[in-house]
């Protein structure tokens, strides 16, 4: 079993146990706020189950129907988890508002606080573990599940504080108010997760990855790499896909062009922390490139070198050569 599968299986088993514990706390106390936490635990279990299946798919090798692999299913997994979190948030808000207007009898709140506090600590450690493994293996699914559990841990901590305040003050309507606040917090986190997953499903360019690649190319640029443009990067599971155009001297033969592109491929794969597949289109230089081309002893130069154009996010991501003076 792979590290990712083992991590998400731990999350699934823990989520089931904690869900049962939270519902026990709810039946003891009849607290809307505790029901809020228990209802979100159902989402944790469903999300972890789907995440386990997504990680299984993401580890399958490329095939004829999936030439880019199956890693993109992780974005769908994160989307489903975000939607489930949002649904839980809406249900919690409806139940809490109803309780605020019509009242709700609670009891044995300290016992409930002890159970919720213990589940929050467990979620904190499991969430941290999932995020650590997810970052190490570039798994969006594990990171999303880990952040979800951290969110659950934070809401549990707020819930415990609220329960103690209710018990000390005997202001029972605070139970519904705390539940509404936690419901809004859950709803906001569901939106953030859904937004990130939709960006991945729509092939939204990963700006952080592009910036990392641009910095690497600028730091190690060679004389023959006249410019780089139309650079884009997408992540599919643990795999990173980059495509770009590189302008090379037009008199290079095919073998020389191949070597230059291979050098760029090796450079990026050695510099970034994940497996990277590059699609590089070679463009021939034009006379208008001469003023920023640093090729020495160029027999076809039409204009003297005047200054290097530094590669940055503004010019490298545009679909045009760098003719600016």
Features:
9 helices, Alpha-Beta Plaits, 3-stranded mixed β-sheet, 9% strand, mainly alpha, 2 domains, 325 residues, Alpha-lytic protease prodomain-like
Produce a short descriptive summary.
The protein has 325 residues and is mainly alpha-helical. The chain is 63% helix and 9% strand. The protein is elongated and about 90 Å long.
Instruction: Figure out the total of helices.
Output: 9
Number of strands: 3
The span between the termini is 56 Å
Provide the low-confidence segments as ranges: none
Q: In this structure, how is the largest beta sheet organized?
A: 3 strands, mixed
Question: What's the overall average pLDDT, rounded?
Answer: 81
Structural domain count: 2
At the fourth level of CATH, the homologous superfamily of the largest domain is: Cation efflux protein transmembrane domain
Which structural class best describes the helix and strand composition?
mainly alpha
- Can you tell me the CATH class of the largest domain? Mainly Alpha
Secondary structure: helix percent? 55-70%
SSE string, helices as H and strands as E: HHHHHHHEEHEH
Tell me the CATH topology of the largest domain: Alpha-lytic protease prodomain-like
Instruction: Please identify, by name, the CATH architecture of the largest domain.
Output: Up-down Bundle
InterPro entries: Cation_efflux, Cation_efflux_CTD, Cation_efflux_CTD_sf, Cation_efflux_TM, Cation_efflux_TMD_sf, CDF_Transporter
Main location: membrane
Keywords: Membrane, Transmembrane, Transmembrane helix, Transport
Domain Cation efflux protein cytoplasmic: 208-285
